[in-house]
Amino acid sequence: MTTTTTTKAKLGELVWEHRLRAAAAVALLAAAVVSVSAIGPRLGAVVSFFWPLLVSTAFFLVAMTVLLRISPPPAGADDSGKELVDFVAGSHHMDHFLPEACATVEVPPEI
Q1: Which of 13, 49, 67, 108 is the most exposed place for a label (fewest CB within 10 A)?
Q2: DSSP letters of 34-102?
């Protein structure tokens, strides 16, 4: 019981020490919520504008869930895209793409 008491005491001291920052954060959050609700569009307007996107996204997620249930990925599928990820991430070497003649081009000296 003493560890929870000391933890609560430390937490109380920490809150008391940073009370101005906490009050400013709460005030800023409240101001942001009020300004978004007063100036921003209503939720119904957003949903009515984006309903095709929301429906197609929901359909896609349901379809992927069903497909993964029907046919789970193979056991060795963890490393299947590693080469592609390394290539996109830029950790590939271009040496095997260049012929030897292109790799050893000498630049002539300037006149």
Answers
A1: 108
A2: HHHHHHSPPHHHHHHHHHHHHHHHHHHHHHHHHHHHHSPPPTTGGGTTHHHHHHHHT---GGGTS-HHH
